[in-house]
C-alpha cells in the first residue's frame, strides 16, 4: 500500500552515473564517463573516458563547470573511487523495494510518484540542492494536479549517504520545507565523516599500493568531498580535539575547508530554528563497525584512529556514530534507528528496507526475527590480485556482560553477479576470527560474515572489496 506522496531517492557520492554531451549532439547517456560495472572499475579510471579527466577548476565554489558533464541515472552496480570513498552497492534493491510497494517511476499516463534523482557528485551540495528543487517541485505539481487523494501530496525523501546533505540543503535553504513531509536518511553524515579528512589530506598518488593512477588532484577539486569533512572536533592536539577550522590542515585549500564548515553550520542553524525538522526526520544509521573517528596530523599526513580517548563509538565503517547523528541529538537519542551494518550495504539491508516501508506506509510490517549476535567486520576496500584478502571480525552478544559468543560463522565472497567465489569457516578465539582468501579473481566482490546455520543467531554484515588486477610486467 502506498501513500499519496511523491517519493524521491537520492544516492550517495559516486552513486550517480555521469556522461558527457557529444559534439555530434548525442545525449550524455550515450557517452558515459562514470558507470563502472562491478568487474571493471579500473577500466573506467584508466581508460580514454576516465572520470579523472574531469577534475574541477580552482575556485568553482557552488557553480557548475561548462565541461559537458551531466548526471544520467542512479548506479545499479557496485561503485568505488579507491581512496576517495568506500565501495558502495548500487540502488536497484532499494528502487525495486519501493516499486513493490506500488511507487512507480513509469506510471503510464499518470504522473510518477517515485523519482530517482541522479546528480553530479563532484559539485557542491548547495548547487545540487538548488537543482533538486527544479526537478521535484514540478513533479509534485503534476502529481497534485490529478486531484483526489493526490491533491495534498508532499515529498518524502529516501536518501543514502551524501544524498542526505543535498536533500537537507533543499529542505532548509531552498524552500523545500513547505512541500516535504518526511526525510529518511540512510547512513547520512549529518556532521561529516572523519574518513573524508584522512583521504583529502593523504591523497592517492601514483606508485602507492596497488594503484597506478593519481586520484589526488581530482578528489581535492571536489567541493562535495570537502563538505563531507567532519564538523565536530576530531583532530588530536596537545590541548584536546580541534575542528578543521581551528588548526592548519596540511595539503588542503583553506578557503574550501572554511566554506565546508560554513555549509555544515548553515544547515545546522536552519534546522535548529525550525522545530519541524526533528519531527519530519527519520535517521537510520549503521553501528558496531570499525570506523575512523579521530585523526592525528603529523608530517603532512593524517593518521586515523577509531576512538575518542578511551571511548570507541564505532559507526558504519565509513561514517562514525558522532557524524551520523544530527539535529543536535545525543548519541543515545530515541529518533535514530540503529542497524549493525556497513555503510556500503545500508540501502540493501532487509531490516532497513522494512523500516523504510513502515515509515512510508504508516502500516506495521511483520518484523523478521532479530538475531542476538552482532558482527564487527574489517574488510579492506582494495587489494592487489594475489596479495590476499584478509577478513577479520569480532562477535558481540547483545548483553555486554556476556562472554563472547561461541557460534559457527561462515565468511562468503561473491562476485558482482552473486556467484560464490570462496567460503571459509574460521576458528574463533574469544569471539575473534580471521581468514584470508588468496586466489580471488580481479573484480568487485561482496564479503558477507554470517552464521553457518540459521539457528546460530548471527546478524550478517556485508562489505565490498575491489581486487585490483596484478600489474602486467
Automatic annotation (TrEMBL):
Give a GO biological-process term. lipid metabolic process
Coiled-coil annotated residue ranges, if any: none
**What GO molecular function annotation could you give as one example from this UniProt entry?**
O-acyltransferase activity
- Record key words, sorted: Acyltransferase, Transferase
Q: Which InterPro entries match?
A: AB_hydrolase_fold (IPR029058), LACT/PDAT_acylTrfase (IPR003386)
Database matches in SUPFAM superfamilies: alpha/beta-Hydrolases
Q: Which Pfam families match?
A: LCAT (PF02450)
Look up the domain of life of the source. Bacteria
What protein name applies here?
Lecithin:cholesterol acyltransferase
Amino acid at each position: 500500500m502506498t501513500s499519496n506522496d511523491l517519493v524521491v531517492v537520492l544516492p550517495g557520492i559516486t552513486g550517480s552515473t555521469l556522461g558527457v554531451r557529444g559534439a555530434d549532439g548525442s545525449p550524455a547517456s550515450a557517452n558515459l564517463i562514470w558507470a563502472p560495472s562491478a568487474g571493471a572499475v579500473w577500466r573506467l579510471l584508466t581508460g580514454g573516458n576516465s572520470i579523472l579527466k574531469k577534475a574541477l577548476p580552482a575556485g568553482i565554489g557552488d557553480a557548475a563547470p561548462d565541461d559537458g558533464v551531466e548526471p544520467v541515472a542512479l548506479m545499479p552496480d557496485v561503485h568505488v573511487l579507491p581512496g576517495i570513498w568506500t565501495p558502495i552497492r548500487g540502488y536497484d534493491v532499494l528502487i525495486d523495494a519501493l516499486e513493490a510497494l506500488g511507487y512507480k517511476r513509469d506510471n503510464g499516463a499518470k504522473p510518477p510518484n517515485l523519482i530517482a534523482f541522479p546528480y553530479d557528485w563532484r559539485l557542491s551540495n548547495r548547487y545540487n540542492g538548488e537543482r533538486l528543487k527544479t526537478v521535484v517541485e514540478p513533479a509534485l505539481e503534476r502529481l497534485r494536479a490529478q486531484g483526489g487523494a493526490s491533491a495534498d501530496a508532499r515529498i518524502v525523501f529516501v536518501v543514502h549517504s551524501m544524498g542526505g546533505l543535498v536533500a537537507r540543503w533543499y529542505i532548509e535553504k531552498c524552500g523545500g520545507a513547505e512541500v516535504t513531509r518526511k526525510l529518511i536518511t540512510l547512513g547520512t553524515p549529518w556532521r561529516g565523516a572523519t574518513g573524508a579528512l584522512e583521504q583529502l589530506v593523504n591523497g592517492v598518488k601514483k606508485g602507492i599500493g596497488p594503484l597506478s593512477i593519481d586520484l589526488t588532484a581530482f578528489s581535492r577539486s571536489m567541493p562535495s568531498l570537502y563538505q563531507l569533512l567532519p564538523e565536530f572536533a576530531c583532530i588530536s592536539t596537545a590541548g584536546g580535539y580541534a575542528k578543521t577550522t581551528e588548526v592548519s590542515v596540511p595539503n588542503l585549500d583553506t578557503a574550501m575547508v572554511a566554506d565546508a564548515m560554513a555549509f555544515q553550520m548553515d544547515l545546522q542553524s536552519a534546522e535548529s530554528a525550525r522545530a519541524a525538522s526533528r519531527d519530519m526526520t527519520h535517521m537510520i544509521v549503521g553501528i558496531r563497525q570499525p570506523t575512523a573517528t579521530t585523526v592525528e596530523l603529523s608530517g603532512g599526513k593524517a593518521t586515523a584512529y577509531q576512538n575518542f580517548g578511551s571511548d570507541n563509538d564505532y559507526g558504519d565503517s565509513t561514517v562514525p556514530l558522532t557524524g551520523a547523528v544530527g539535529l543536535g541529538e545525543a548519541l543515545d537519542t530515541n529518533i535514530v534507528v540503529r542497524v549493525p551494518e556497513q555503510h556500503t550495504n545500508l540501502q540493501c539491508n532487509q531490516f532497513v528496507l522494512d523500516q523504510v516501508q513502515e515509515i512510508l506506509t504508516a502500516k506495521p510490517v511483520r518484523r523478521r526475527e532479530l538475531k542476538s549476535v552482532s558482527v564487527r567486520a574489517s574488510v579492506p576496500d582494495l587489494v592487489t590480485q594475489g596479495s590476499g584478502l584478509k577478513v577479520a571480525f569480532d562477535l558481540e552478544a547483545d548483553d555486554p556482560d556476556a562472554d563472547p559468543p561461541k557460534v559457527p560463522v561462515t565468511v562468503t565472497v561473491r562476485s558482482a553477479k552473486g556467484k560464490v567465489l570462496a567460503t571459509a569457516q574460521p576458528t574463533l578465539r574469544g569471539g575473534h576470527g580471521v581468514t584470508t582468501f588468496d586466489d580471488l579473481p580481479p573484480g568487485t566482490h561482496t564479503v558477507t560474515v554470517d552464521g553457518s546455520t540459521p539457528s546460530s543467531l548471527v546478524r550478517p554484515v556485508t562489505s565490498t572489496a575491489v581486487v585490483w588486477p596484478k600489474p602486467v610486467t
